[in-house]
Amino acid sequence: MALHSMRKARECWNFLRALHKGPEAAPAPQKDSVKRIFSGIQPTGIPHLGNYLGAIESWVRLQDEHDSVLYSIVDLHSITVPQDPAVLRQSILDMMAALLACGINPEKSILFQQSQVSEHTQLSWILTCMVRLPRLQHLHQWKVHTRSCWGGSSPAHGASSGSSTGV
To answer: 25: which residues sit within 8 A by CB, 6+ positions away?
Structure first.
């Protein structure tokens, strides 16, 4: 399973490299190309009824309907807030076990831990370098996150950092 998921990740990375080289290097999309499904879930506690009805139930159905299905435990997304490393490691294992128990079949889909695929962090770096602050300031998620982190204002909007030195 790990070898298969790494092979798929390399294929995705090679495709991104081809796109970066320019349109002449990128393969033309095929009409009969395989539809690929990708989704992820954060390892934040034990899955509840909302997780099951909102995502996991659909995931089980989708793996039977499509040939290329990838599911990820998005542990890198969960570290946007402070986490106890030991608890996070256990939560990742618990989420993996819960997904398998709910019917995710590794023979029909690829199930992987996001942090184990280095291309995720590499692509994040590339996208971070390309997205400018004014664009982020228009996104709802950015506004909510900066309000929660900076107590209603953000340094990006000219608020002070709370330092009495004025630096």
So the answer is: 18, 19
